[in-house]
């Protein structure tokens, strides 16, 4: 029904008399399309059953008040809907775009359980927040009463940005240090622009800058200043670096030209989107155009690589994954999108080696089968004897996930406690590390995870830091 309505709107736009100039016809069409978008959002939100147990909210890491702002949207009270959505999230329009709703809120919608298709919660959240930006409802970040204390945040990804916003709201001077030339972390350089438009990220960053948060971009902790030096500059430190070390595939030919890491590939593509000059893209090393591309992995990063390669004009795109479709970690919605766009999935397959000498030209792989379940409950892949095969490949993208970097070594802080996986250890109650006044949050604590969890972690650690800083200030006053 909505599609039929949209066609009528398009027909009306095309039917304007020729004497009416193009600018006015475009403006009229935009107004009509805007009204259609509002009606579509209200219609979709009205499908919410307002069930007694809001499973959607329970399965949202932020515990967003989803049924309540869906009801407000259905009633046409968009500003109130936005304000309620924004109450638990510092980036609702970003979550609306990139959260795997099929595994979280929408996957636990009662309407979905009944077989009638979930309420499209993510698209409604995106719509109401985009509308809020357009209408000027997104208020500036207003700092709380000045406390005379400062906090240093290492990492400008979702956890660091979320924590910085809350800490500034508490009244602290906040400085954010990031190694990249733009803030946003993986939001800026790791997620493709077709999923998350970069102006959407940059306007959030600009709002934080306008609120008095100081960003030190292109700043590498350990090189430009050791962790100890930052601790002397600030009253508390938050480590929110995320995890960036690419997992390797230990097979013959892994060092061949044309075998590249997923993040290198995605970063180059996103930099091109910003208009940057990227030498490795210009000379073809990180450009998939005209190539037979094989992506190894089954997570969301692998899907991002697959869909980016298609958009760059790859000759063919195949995704090699060692388990089957039902056991892959990535979003099923992303897989469906990739298939619709022309990607081929080679399930139950694992690489044996990369052939071609200096430059890769093929991937040798083994057929796999699923054996007994592992500790996580997923069936473990094992080699299916006699199932070796080869795939033509001019570019192989390794998207096997990310591990933590050696932060004690990088930061010049050997006393910083880390787990055997390299993630930073924190006290479960205070969220403080082994160093007094140094906290940590996000993927660097929990391991590679979702953006929505990083936002939640940033919110939680800001509250913990606020409590600790208040107690510290109180104790210092009493001692004086």
Helices, strands, pairings?
Elements: H1 2-14, H2 22-45, H3 55-58, H4 66-74, H5 78-86, H6 92-98, H7 110-113, H8 121-135, E1 150-154, H9 158-169, E2 173-178, H10 186-189, H11 198-210, E3 214-217, H12 227-233, E4 236-239, E5 245-246, E6 259-261, H13 262-274, H14 279-282, E7 292-296, H15 300-311, E8 316-320, H16 332-340, E9 344-346, E10 349-355, E11 362-373, E12 379-392, E13 395-398, E14 402-403, H17 407-410, E15 438-440, H18 443-446, H19 451-479
Parallel strand pairs: 1-2, 1-4, 2-3, 4-15, 6-13, 7-8, 7-13, 8-9
Antiparallel strand pairs: 5-14, 10-11, 11-12
Helix pairs in contact: 1-2, 2-4, 2-8, 4-5, 5-8, 6-8, 9-19, 13-15, 15-16
Task: Name the features.
5-stranded parallel β-sheet; 19 helices; 41% helix
Short account of what is shown:
The protein is α/β, with parallel strands linked by helices. Helices cover 41% and strands 16% of the residues.
Q: Can you describe this structure?
A:
- The protein is α/β, with parallel strands linked by helices.
- It is 41% helix and 16% strand.
- It contains 19 helices and 15 strands.
- The strands form 4 sheets. Strands 3-2-1-4-15 form a 5-stranded parallel beta sheet, sandwiched between helices.
- Strand 7, helix 15 and strand 8 form a beta-alpha-beta unit.
- It is globular.
- The N terminus is likely disordered.
- SSE-based structural type: alpha/beta
Total number of helical segments? 19
User: Any low-confidence stretches, pLDDT <50, length ≥5?
Assistant: 1-20
Helix-residue proportion = 40-55%
Mean pLDDT: 90
Largest sheet: 5 strands, parallel
User: Care to count the β-strands?
Assistant: 15
- Spatial ordering of strands, largest sheet: 3-2-1-4-15
Strand content: 15-25%
Coarse shape:
globular
Q: What is the first-to-last residue Cα distance?
A: 71 Å
The value of Rg in angstroms is 24 Å
